[in-house]
Design brief:
Elements lengths: L2 E5 L9 E6 L8 H10 L1 H8 L9 E5 L7 E6 L10 H18 L4 E5 L10 H18 L3 E6 L9 H14 L3 H9 L19 H5 L6 H7 L6 H12 L3 H7 L4 H9 L7 H10 L4 H9 L10 H11 L5 H10 L8
Parallel strand pairs: 1-6, 2-4, 2-5, 5-6
Antiparallel strand pairs: 3-4
The chain binds adenosine-5-diphosphoribose.
Amino acid sequence: MPLHIIRQDITKLECDAIVNAANNTLLGGGGVDGAIHKAAGGKLLEECKTLDGCDTGDAKITKAYNLPCKHVIHTVGPIWRGGENGEKKLLESCYKKSLALAKENGCESVAFPLISSGVYGYPKDKALSVAVETISEFLFDNEMTVYIVVFDKASYQISEELFDDVQEYIDDNYVDEKEERRLYNRPRRIFSSECDFEVGSVCFEEKLASPKKLDVSLIDMLANIDDNFAVTLLKLIDLKGITDVECYKKANVSKQTWYKIMNEKDYKPSKNTVISFAIALELSLEETKHLLSTVGFTLSKSNKFDIIIEYFLLNEEYNIFTINETLFKFDQVCLGV
Ligand code: APR
């Protein structure tokens, strides 16, 4: 997965570079700056003294010394002054300049703290959105694994409204394991005239629940059981009029995984990967279930991850980073591989 949101102490990460939320002097401070200098040892400060400071929105790179990573990229975020003083542009610049430096120095993996969201007072949910948007834009054109490191879960926020909405949906739809078995034991409807679509001899419950017209051409194509997942995926990509690269980038799936799906005959994608592609292709809930069924998966009412995915599909919210921020908030695995 090219973009991960993780909860960690950034000084412990063994990636190629970690980013420091520094101040203009580059001579250390508190927060993550203090933690990085402490873990790196005195030589980091000695090297920083040779850099002649750093402008807000800019970035400079040093060695990592006693840290487990290879480089430290120091960037200076804006101090939050209400949001009308160019803070967003400066914060975007921190991520762009840091990613450019990482690329120039051959880094394949980089970890960012939430820049400016501590002492500098940038609201955490806004700081996270800027980070996710700017990094995912970079990842559309570049191969790199990027981590957004959220230090303390409590400080991690998605918008309250989205959180409440998803929580309510989970409460309404989540059933525990034994209840799920009871639901599934009831006799499934055999095809009848009021269903305007059949796959095999069963009419899908979703059709009964919400008599929304299924996209028969798409479902019809998916129902061709001879197609394996890769063939089905390529047909869907053509049908949606996007390129292969656009599809796997939007799905937050690495190029390596894409090549495996397309070239290794027996490769079986994970449920997470299948759903990531369904989101990238902006499939409906029913279409997603059909795509999952081509590799033997389904969505379950007793799985919180599945319920959250169902919420986003029904609300036609296909921004994988918004979905991942929400999954992260509910302690679920993020989408993409
Ligand atoms: N690992 C990961 N993230 C961390 C860690 C850590 N060890 N320590 C703190 N953080 C998080 C904070 O929770 C916050 O979300 O880093 C984010 C950035 O907070 P700050 O470190 O306060 O940085 P910032 O808000 O950009 O303020 C920079 O603070 O420390 C001084 O010298 C620094 O003057 C500069 C100012």
